[in-house]
Design a protein that fits this description.
The chain is α/β, with parallel strands linked by helices. It folds into two domains: about 170 residues, 3-Layer(aba) Sandwich (Rossmann fold), CATH 3.40.50.620; about 90 residues, 2-Layer Sandwich (Pantoate--beta-alanine Ligase, Chain: A,domain 2), CATH 3.30.1300. It is built from ten helices and nine strands. The strands form two sheets. A six-stranded parallel sheet has the order 1-4-3-2-5-6, sandwiched between helices. A three-stranded antiparallel sheet has the order 7-8-9. Helix 6 packs across helix 7. The radius of gyration is 19 Å and the shape is globular. The two termini are about 35 Å apart. The chain binds pantoate.
């Protein structure tokens, strides 16, 4: 496995890969890898000849009061995990190489980036879209795999790629969960023992919503109310939002149907967790 540290070198390597006809799969990450990321790398590996994984903690997607400074870094550990997962190239640039002096461009996806998480994290999705658009230019992948865990992010990036005619296929990989249902996230490490014991309520409440839908309930307000009641029964949980939206357009949904994404963000203490479930598959 190669480790590439500069944009120039990555661009040259990407040109070489494309010229020999290889199908290039790409998994952008911010490091601190867990089984959720590794499952995306393996999925990319099944669909391509060479997998490039970027590790870059993107400063522009963190707000002033967010956890950029305490975001964990361990390149050596991440590299070892990626080697096992079958990545061909790790691209780990410096921030000054991605955002050189004078950098001024922002990619903004209207509406989709301003709701749900975007309403509480202004500018977050501009940071995500801008860095992903730039990484696509550098790596020139045929396909890129993103986790369904960040369902809003995936929908926004699909919109960006379609709107800008970017020549890359976006694929969503399923959420990987702990045995008790908690979605894997590097932020789970910040939970206290008590918060960790309560956090599986997120997926349990989404599963409850699914069972209400499966038994014929389609009133989104009623189902979201049941999800909220379950979560709020936990003393450390503080709901930021719970919504029902179409999984691709992110339009609000009042009548549940196949393709509706139930999506939520909840604080346990200072730690903000997100999760979602798409009805009908
Ligand atoms: O999902 C993430 O880890 C980040 O938002 C991404 C896509 C790597 C962009 O920095």
């Amino acid at each position: 496995m190669e480790i590439i540290r500069t944009v120039e070198e990555m661009k040259a390597r990407a040109r070489a890969l494309r010229s020999d006809g290889s199908v290039v799969g790409f998994v952008p990450t911010m490091g601190s890898l867990h089984e959720g990321h590794l499952s995306l790398v393996r999925m990319a590996g099944e669909l391509s000849d060479s997998v490039v994984v970027s590790i870059f903690v993107n400063p522009t997607q963190f707000g002033p009061n967010e956890d950029l400074d305490r975001y964990p870094h361990d390149l050596e550990r991440d590299v070892a995990l990626l080697e096992d997962a079958g990545a061909a190239i790790v691209f780990a640039p410096e921030a000054s190489d991605i955002y050189p002096r004078g950098y001024a461009t922002v990619v903004h996806v209207q509406r989709l980036g301003e709701k749900l998480c975007g309403a509480f994290r202004p500018g977050h999705f501009d940071g995500v879209c801008s860095v992903v658009a730039k990484l696509f230019e550098i790596v020139r992948p045929n396909l890129a795999v993103f986790g369904q865990k960040d369902g809003q992010q995936a929908a926004i990036l699909e919109r960006m790629v379609a709107d800008l005619e970017m020549d890359v296929r976006i694929i969503r990989g399923p959420t990987v969960r702990e045995p008790d249902g908690l979605a894997l996230s590097s932020r789970n490490n910040y939970l206290s023992d008590e918060e960790r014991a309560e956090a599986p309520v997120l997926y349990a409440s989404l599963e409850h919503a699914r069972s209400l839908y499966d038994s014929g309930e389609t009133d989104a307000a009623k189902v979201l109310g049941a999800v909220r009641a379950m979560i709020e029964s936990k003393p450390h949980a503080r709901v930021q939002y719970i919504s029902a939206v179409d999984w691709k357009s992110l339009d609000d949904v009042t009548e549940l149907r196949a393709g509706t994404m139930l999506v939520l963000a909840v604080f346990f203490g200072k730690t903000r967790l997100i999760d979602n479930l798409v009805l009908g598959g």
